[in-house]
Design a protein that fits this description.
By secondary structure, this protein is of the alpha/beta class. The chain has one domain: Alpha/Beta hydrolase fold, catalytic domain (Rossmann fold), CATH 3.40.50. It is built from 11 helices and 8 strands. Strands 1-2-4-3-5-6-7-8 form an 8-stranded mixed beta sheet, with helices on both faces. Helix 3 (90-104) links the parallel strand 3 (76-80) and strand 4 (107-112). The longest helix has 19 residues, at 290-308. The protein starts with a helix and ends with a helix.
């Protein structure tokens, strides 16, 4: 299926306004360019409360934002935003997390981890893991109850969410009920069919991902770690139930779907959607791309279903 009409028009508009390709931008230039996306997005759904948080971690604090739905929340979802570990923050992803909170009836804690290249691997993983442990310990104070704990994220944020599930399985200090993975980074193989397909070289290209990886984990030894490239983890058994969304026209499509398959083969329950006619990043385009609405409907329905079942 070809890229949908709205997405094609959006991509063409951004391409016409670009001064140079994304992979040639400095980190500061890329951050400024990405931040401008927030001016295009709608505010997202209404929630009962938005609570700013400062999460203590080794070497500093992380900004976070807690979105509490109008209904009594069924769970707490700790969400890590995308941006290739280099760009993005809680401002650009607030509309998306408001939509998830309202649509799924879960509280969402959107965490802004520290970025590469200033904080390369494993820095963002450490931030994510410490944030999840802190939020798990603070649930009663923040929400008045101990709720099922979920982790999630998109793209690089999905990669960090996976790393958290691997650490939780190893450390056994936090119990995670489910994971939400939206076009996650799961490997550093840049020659998969989806990576080299000409139709997939849209806003997030093969060259852009190469640049992000160079900033995040430039050394081969780091890239071999399953906390950076979780598809290389030999054993995926015992991980939380997974909701996985991939996009048809995305360089990361194949590795995201390969990870979903590996989870299923390891006995993990998986709910997978390949969003037809969509590109990488479509889900955050609240009020811009119709495909975002459809993807959110799938995610919110599955989150309600997962949190309605008793924990196994």
């Amino acid at each position: 299926m070809s890229l949908d009409i709205e997405t094609r028009a959006f991509v063409d508009t951004l391409a016409a306004a670009a001064t140079k390709p994304r992979h040639l931008l400095t980190p500061d230039e890329a951050r400024s360019a990405f931040a401008r996306i927030s001016t295009l997005l709608s505010a997202g759904a209404e929630v009962r409360a938005t609570v700013p948080l400062e999460i203590p971690v080794d070497g500093g604090t992380l900004r976070a934002r807690l979105f509490v739905p109008a209904e009594a929340p069924h769970a707490l979802l700790v969400y890590f935003h995308g941006g290739g570990w280099v760009v993005g923050g809680i401002d650009e992803f607030t509309p998306l997390c408001r939509e998830i909170a309202a649509g799924a009836g879960v509280a969402v804690a959107l965490v802004e981890y520290r970025k590469a290249p200033e904080h390369p691997f494993p820095g963002p993983v450490d931030d994510a893991w410490q944030a999840v442990r802190w939020l798990a310990a603070q649930q009663a104070a923040l929400l008045g109850a101990e709720l099922p704990l979920l982790v999630g994220g998109d793209s690089a944020g999905g990669n960090l969410a996976i790393a958290v599930t691997l650490l939780a399985r190893r450390e056994r200090t936090v119990s995670i009920a489910a994971q939400l993975l939206v076009y996650p980074v799961t490997d550093c193989d840049f020659d998969r069919p989806s990576y080299v397909a000409p139709d997939n070289q849209l806003l997030t290209t093969r060259d852009a991902m190469l640049a992000y990886w160079k900033h995040y984990a430039p050394a081969g030894s780091a890239r071999a770690s399953s906390l950076a490239a979780p598809l290389r983890e030999p054993d995926l058994s015992g991980l939380p139930e997974a909701i996985v969304v991939t996009a048809e026209h995305d360089v990361l499509r194949d590795e995201g779907e390969a990870y979903a398959l590996r989870l299923e083969q390891a006995g993990v329950r998986v709910h997978h959607l390949r969003a037809q006619g969509q590109m990488h990043g479509f889900l955050m385009m609240i009020g811009v791309l119709p495909g975002s609405r459809d993807g959110l409907r799938f995610i919110c329905d599955r989150l309600r279903s997962v949190t309605a079942r008793p924990a196994r």
